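Repro:
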Amino acid sequence: MIKRTGCLLTLLCCVLSAAEEQWVVSARGMDVPFRSWQAEGAGASTGVLVLVPGYNGKGEQILDARWKAFATKHNLVLLAPTFHAEGKENNEGKGYYYPEQGSGEVMEKALKEVEKRTGAETEKVLFFGFSAGAHYVHRFALWKPQRVKAFVAYSAAWWSEPTARVRNVPGLILCGESDERYAATWEFFKKGQRLGCPWLWRSYTGTGHELTPAVRDMAEVFLAHYGGREEPAGKGEQSEEQVVMPVSRYGDIQTYRSVGSAERESIHEEFRIELPSKAVADVWEKETE
């Protein structure tokens, strides 16, 4: 059952602006507020980007100006939940970190509501999560890989075991090298790499448990590659000549330098990842201050 709640108790729905709405989704004893955003005047969207905040974080707080600019540029609807856990239930495998416990059903109902409201395509969507959000999005990908176009998981404290079911789901796994979550995050990536998952790895020196501009840059170029679409400057469809096909490059996760296909064997297989486009490679290689 989907319940729409408003800013006042006497209202059934709260329309915050022409672009932003909020409502509550209920399932299996959970009542989860959701906030959605779409650029005013936008046409039919090509997809949805789900943003999951940190521990017990509010959806409206993660919907910042930068994500809204990204969604406008790539014609995406943003959707952000406000999950809540009591005590240590997430640590015990019972809280919202685990989609099979009910938060996944809540998300699927919310996506259905977004499709109804905006006409967006929600069969497969993009996910981004930091900290607790990373807990949720990587487990959603493991739980329902067929619903995930690509996901970004930045710095979870512990990770579930990847399986061959996610072998076709692109992922970007990141962590700060000064973050105590680094070892667990690295191990999760390596397990996925051994399974043949199309995952990228990026770590950042001198970075702790914080969402930095460099991380946002990397997340955005990755999500744009797999699900974004820039609106053409003029009217009508893009011509065949306007479509730029991605160019694969190969990156060394020890040095963060990339090479072309002809030089891929110069990187040891253990440390080699495929970077799906030059745009992704350029940001991936970029040194941070």
